Amino acid sequence: MDWLLDLYHRHGDWRDLTLVMLSPVFAVFIAMEAWRFRRTGVFDFRDTFDSLNSGGSYLVADLILLVVLVLPAMGWVYDHRLFTIAVTPWRFLGLFLLVEFLYYGFHRGSHRIRWFWCAHVVHHGSEKMNFGTALRQSWFYPVAGNWLFYLPAVWLGFEPRWVLFALSLNLGYQFFVHTTWVDKLPGWFEYVFNTPSHHRVHHGRNPQYVDKNFGGMLIVFDRLFGSFVPEEAPVDYGLEHPFPTHNLFWLNAHEWRAMFRDMARETTWGMRLAHLWKPPGWRRHGNGFQG
Asked: Who wins on pLDDT, 231 or 69?
């Protein structure tokens, strides 16, 4: 681990550690929720362990790839920016709203483009809805290119680390919408913000809930672009094509293998490559899991 610490000391910044610094807060809320809903089935030990294991390893992988891949690429775009926007409190608020809009694009794209879904699928693998589920993230987000969605903010003139800091705060808020503990909130709040009720819908595999409610902190872009659905019927959580394993590697890699197997079954390169940008369910063969 010394090489990792040295790498961070040479290239890191306190803003890179936002989610790491929030981890004790997350741990407290997970413990409180687990105690509140003990013996109710809201938590399952193996499922929660998978989520925590996935989240912890994701933070390590993400920090490494942030330093060696994401920041250099964003730095190149920043060197060719349109303007230089110094961050003030009001400009940071504008940046935060811009990042929310870009997050909506990333999140919707991650459900409709299989290449990005290969990484995002990890987050939807749990059939439970609790604070632990929020931590279930993919090792391969930077490799898949989730950071590409935020380049417009950098190109516009915001320094990359401020963009990523705004994103980290957005993701920090999203931890708290992964729960059944909170019912619907006051109407004005439900209309503007992403809430546990809205996000329960997003994690549902009910036909009426699939690919809905993509917002991060806000729900306004879902309302504007027609992807909003309110929570009405009880939510059935998990994937349409479940992946039954507790192996950490395959939790992260199973959809990549399924996609490449589907590509290999095609007879032309055009059809093979189409699997990269077509929706996840397009010409899918099985669930890709064979032990």
From this structure: 231
